[in-house]
## 1
Amino acid sequence: MVIRLQPRACSRQRALPIPTTPRRLSTSAPIPAALPIQAIRAPTPATFLSDVIISPVPLHLTDFLPLEWLDTIKRWRNFTALRTPESDGVLIPVELQKGGRGYNADGGRGVVGDGEAEGWRRVDMPFGLFLDTFMLDRIPSSPDFNIRGYLAQHDLLSSIPTLSTHLPPLPHLAPFRPQTNLWLGPAHTLTPLHRDPLPNLFIQLLGRKRLTLAPPSAAPKLYLHPQNSVLRNTSRFPGDWPRSEEELRGWEEMRGVRRWEVEVGEGEAVWVPRGVWHAVRSLEKSASVNFWFDERHRVGEEEGTEVGG
């Protein structure tokens, strides 16, 4: 006897999967995430000397600025306090950056280091005009205007004495003779990946910035300019760091480089040790100040005597 099984009635048919073209898997390792940097809260002048300046890795410093500096941050908040009859006509060097590209904008393939590169120029303009155009938005421009002005690495406090009283000397730097620079610009301005011959105390006054940093040992993978170039301390990569496979194209050696990353807000600082590679990107309208100094030499020591490690 043969038993025939009847298929069970079903109110709906199961859809068969539609064949698709297999996705091509990338054979490259993913771009590693950046590492956070250690934070130190409220370093005193004593702990700055004993703990911070001896650190070979970057540090994130918070809650250490004196009250006079905090008052200045409040006073400068809308940037109008920077404009005075004394400051209006002072000529300042301004980087004109197109599309958020820095002074290495052409990746080293054109004329660089002499004041002009593709997507970047340096011009002199009155400080009042700079503020009106790029910080206070008092001069109208078309929606597709993609030029940003950046006051970068300029000792504005010496040029405008009244402003220097707003930021009195930091007690943390009393044993040193620091070189001071002010940085002022709108969102998306960039200082490309580079390293300095001296350590750097970078302080954010207004707005937010992102710092990307890499150890000195990363140099062979950072596509540096030739040793005979004025930009020999700077990477040819035109951004702060490749953040996608598309941006990594042509810069493949940077994929596996260990790096740190930190966002700093008002009143925060970053200690950048001597020789550490770093790039700085403005995330919004910003004002920053930095101090370069030789941590091995202190005021009162005999010339040429090394102290502090």
## 2
Amino acid sequence: MESAIAIAGVAVLPDWTQLPEEILVTLFGELGVPDLIRSGAVCTSWHSAYNAFRDACGPDAAALYCPSTGATFRIPMPEPLPLRSLSPIGSAHGWLVVADEVSNLHLVNPLTGGRVALPPITALHNVAGDASLDEEDGLVYNVYEQPGDASRATPVPVGEARDCMYDRAVLSCAPSAGSACVVLLLHSPLCELSFARPGDERWTWIPPGDGRTGLRRSNFYRAAAYNESDGLFYVVSSDDSIYTLDLKGPSPVARRIMSPLRHGDQPYRYLVHAPWGDLLQAWRFRREHEPFPPVETEEDDGPFADPSVELNTAELYLIPLNSKIP
């Protein structure tokens, strides 16, 4: 029931539509995302204040999509990590794993503004020292082509390293859990695996083929997921074999739980959590779709078809971990 104000003996309901816009904008900043969106639909003046609040968020606001309601929420991202300068490579538990403009990784919570730094890119085993200047005075990281072979290091511009070094990242839990939070990183070269916890100074490389971890050297790891029910990471290799990875002890321990599968086409591989708690493989086969008629451009070598053809999903399979492809 709304509170009434007595004026000259007459009860008068407060007119909340007449609140000054600057007060509404301040109050909107204290609301949760769903309540904030609903507030914009109360009346014309509140909707105007809501638009002003959104404009105040600026270009570095995050757009969050809610699958259960279909609603999209827009919230501000605080400095010093503006959203538009970040490249996401993973997400879990409300946190994003993002790479900044110099290719260092961070955990960012777009709802709370929380952020946690992870070890820098120079703390990966295959990056040689700090950034240095190349022949054109540009900052570069020296990245090993082969692990441990410093003679074959390739200079990679600091702003481009995030596009070629990182494949994806997986979290075990939110950073608020402290040392229980582990970030597993799939990275170059050869889609290798490294992990770190918030507060670590370096990434811990999981060397394949050394006889201790149980991982094979010839495998390229394409997907990963964390399973809360057993506390293990699961990784999928390019031959579709699957390994569990236990990072709770002093040394990583891997165990193969699914043998390689033989098939012709190479699918895009994913590990997904089912609503009932199981972990599933997802295989997506894509086919090129060329425009008709082909788009042609003139080059020195003559006309050629536009290489930017569409890649469409042709088949999609969801497979329990103990099953084989149909």
## 3
Amino acid sequence: MADPIKIIDSLIKDVKNVDIPNPGARTVNTRGTDLDICWFPKCPPGHTDYTWWGEEEDYEIVNVVEPKSSTAKANSNAEGKAKAKGKAKGKGKDGEAKERQNSKKQKQNQGKRPKGKNNAASDTPLFARVDLRVGHVEKVFEHPNPDVKKLWCEQINVGEDKPRLIASGLRNFYSKEEFQGKNIIVVCNLKPSKLVGFVSNGMVLCASNSDHTKVELVEPPPNAKPGTRISLQNLDVNEFEPDEKINPRKKNSVWLQFAPKMATNGEKLATFDGVKLVTPEGDCTVPTLANCIVK
């Protein structure tokens, strides 16, 4: 019988002579090779790549909220009511008074337009953004500065509480008697401007020939009511709000888009982009200037 000790020593020598890879030393990627089957098996059940290989997982961790039981819901509702009551008690009379004032202010501000901005809606037609109204010239007088010879100053009724003061460069084209008493058209939402120290609150609409040697007032029908807004033949402007104020000197002013479209046609009717200006009483006309600019 062989000596057991010698058998064991022989086995130890044989094992030492075998080149066994070190499972903990992954200096080379051996997965997918024959070694993978022996020493680096695929991820076994119960493990992930992270727990088996020490690699990061691609899974996104999502916080899961467990549904509340009916008892928990009841408790949370009771807590909410208790808090609301506590707040109400804390407000006292002063808090209630402030709430009433705030609600009143909100009601008063409903439907009001913010000041200092163009409040026309984006879908408002260009013509409707300019406030053209029938005006009646109640009084014509000289400019307060006696050196100013080209301007008339007027009091014009445009349907407001009091007449507007407007200055117009029409002294070379109309006498005081010709101008006073006329029904005209006024641009009412232009920004007020000073003309040699006189504040003009609007502009009178006129037609002119190309060299500006002849100027004529655009006139609505004689029976048109002061304050009536001028519409187009195919557009009722009363369905829209005009801009609050228009500054014609600004680069992107509505006026710079509007003014080039104004003209008279061959029938001496005032038009916008070829469409007639109208009032409920009829068309807006000039005496003689056909196919001329209007401004």
## 4
Amino acid sequence: MSAEPSAAEKSAAFEKVLKRNPHGDFKAVEASRPAFDPSPKFTYVQTPQPDWTYGSGANSLATAPASASTETNKNEQQQHIVVDPYTEGRPPAFNYKLLISAIVPRPIALVSTRSADGTTENLAPFSYFQVISHDPPLFTLGFASPLTPASRAKDSLRILHETGECVINLISTPFLEAANSCSTNAPLGVSEWVISGLTPVYDTQTVQAARAKEAVFAVECKLVHVKEFESRSKPGETGSTLVVVEGTKFWIQEGAVNEELNQMDLDVYKPVSRLGGITYGLVREGLEIPRPDFEKDIGGQEGYERLKKKKEE
């Protein structure tokens, strides 16, 4: 009987099916592109339609042609297609590839874990990541691997489950390449701290895992909940594991947060996001839209009834 493939081996096999990198020679393609410009600061622009009014539906971009060659009538709605994720013969990798290009942009957690005896450390990026609560501060991490048996679990998941703790480092542009290098399918015992050249700092107060010195924002976390989910493509096997952790301490680089310690400065933070394939997104532009007050902005119940009547006409 052949040995069960390790998490690293399964990851390598998955990448072959996925074909995440669409370029034969990425460095040649990259060399043909404009150089990275570090000078732009975060800027605000107007909303797509500043004169938009309540009850108007989608803004003017929804009816604009997709390109200069588009001849579709502006008032004609584009049709949709239905994709069944469980279609016979559809590889799970197709769902992964579609979802990571559709659910964008996604924040990236560079998760640091350390075994109880301190002999094994792991550093890995996860874009199946999100904050889900502020009181208490809760975060989710999604792992495309089972928790058991331990030989099949991703190293970060296994150590996090065993120790009940981790550090989430949010990725910024100045160490993007280093953070990306941590996604390599390295075998157990290989330290991504070495591969990336990032700096582990062991001054955390509620966990043993190190935080990355280069991270502008990091969170010490304690394990709250773990749940495995059965695979639909391989019934009887675990396809993924959901982890919920609670933030116990926040670490913020000086100068990156306001005096009230409640608002990050994006020009200092320089956060990046994950898009589809091997693409990352830069946060350099934004727009503001105030949250509406039902009485003041919509006109209360009377205003709502007017909008409802208009919609029914």
